[in-house]
Task: structure prediction
Amino acid sequence: MKESLIADTPFQEIIKTRGVDTALHAAGNHNRYQFSLMFYLSVHWVVISFVLMVQPFLTQVPTFLCKDPLDPTKMYECEEAQSCREGVIVSSDFPYNLAIEFKLYCDRAGLRDLVGSIFFLGGSIGTLVFSHVSDTYGRKTALFMAYVTGTIGIVVCGISPNLTLFLIFLAASWGGYDAYFAFSFIILNESGGVKLRGISNATLLIVWAVGVSIFVGIAYVLPNWRHQVIWTMAVPGVLFIVFFAKIQESPRFLLAKGKLLECEQALRKIAQVNNREKRIEYLIDPSSVSKSVVLSKVSHYTSYAPSSSSPTSYLTILTNKWLRKRFFLFTLLIIYLFLSYNGILFALASLGGNIYVNSLIVNAAELLAYIASIFMLGNVKRKRSLLIIMLISAGGGLVFALIPFIQCENYIICSEAFLKGAMSLVIKFAVSLSFGLIYVYGSELFPTTMRSKCIGVAAATGRATGIVITWINSGLLNLGINPVLFYGLLGFLVMILLKWLPETFGSKLLDDIPSEELEEVDLGDMAAEEEELDAQERLDNMSSPN
Result:
């Protein structure tokens, strides 16, 4: 495709012949626009984090009361089954959640698990649908449609008069927001340079961790579930739509689609925000020796050119051997991460103690993990990072299994509750750290023409595990197995997958599927090339401030 493009301007010629990386470097690939984009996405992410974090509170089992047989005027806490037999009495001190309003207990107790399943089913369907939109019509279009869909869904959830309507729009809300979650990483990675990948992705996840922690406090202060949904999700969600006016389409996507004019326009708008319009003109004009050096220095800065014959449908994932191998292994990795993350989220009550305290402690581990991911993304190779993470997770699972056999004189440290809580934090830290890496890794694994589809389908498959997550947790507890143990030990299996995945640390982003099905595609050291370009730019600025 790129060879058949007709360049109408000198800048389009540079984009066509030297690649979008060179043009984006001139426009600014780690400047004001990229940090502004991080801010706009982060604001949306706060709302989306609330939507996920409210789920365990919505369906938390109420506190049931039974009459004292010796003194009918007195009440005591009892199990749900006993309360159902004797006449249901729910404690008035318990937060007014979905389970209480729609009576999701006794013979309707199974509906509590259905709520979580419908929620994640919506996420899987939405991610599949919007991944096609993203690779066909654009990253910004997909983000906008996904966000609006999620916002409409959560607005209706907050005012739903019955459970049926609530479930329909609950699925719609996460169908939109989950897709937005996945594709935020894609537009960030495609709109910036390699220097920004680690910082930008980790920043979003740090915002996410802060958001879920804030919501724990909100849930405590606003115990009524409708107030939580309307005032902290629906209203802000509608107001924050305005930020889309500031987001540009991914220049890399536009070039992959052969839209040179739109690509140039997007890059010039980015340059305008970054105050680098003169740098683009400086790149275009080869009249001086210094400027021609700039062009010669970046002549090797190219990437795989999308070709008109390259298939980009969902079937390509299955029919292309090179893509199929990467997709299959990446999907298994994603399944583990989603299964563990959501499993621990919905297993908070099984840890014992107060759900608010459990949530804050577990979220603190998540926040620390995302902060640590900044270092790992910038300094440690992807496969090595994931291996370390899986070892931590699996080690936590093993210790969890040995807790009943641990004995020592210190009652507090050796207590089962303390050790379970500590190992839950270790496993949650490892899984969260994986999330700090996985979307960057996915963007580096897959080409622009198939990036949203591959990551979207993998994420949808991972989210599909959430459909049965509450039943998995219930089944494990019925068997006497704590869910946290199960998710931790899965890390051992995931470690095996890393052997067949390629290393992508510091590499350029692929534009298209390689014409030859190679085991490894050497894209060069993008970080080194960016350093070279930055150094040349500093020299040029010394000789000419323009």
In short: Residues 371 and 467 are 30 Å apart (CA to CA).
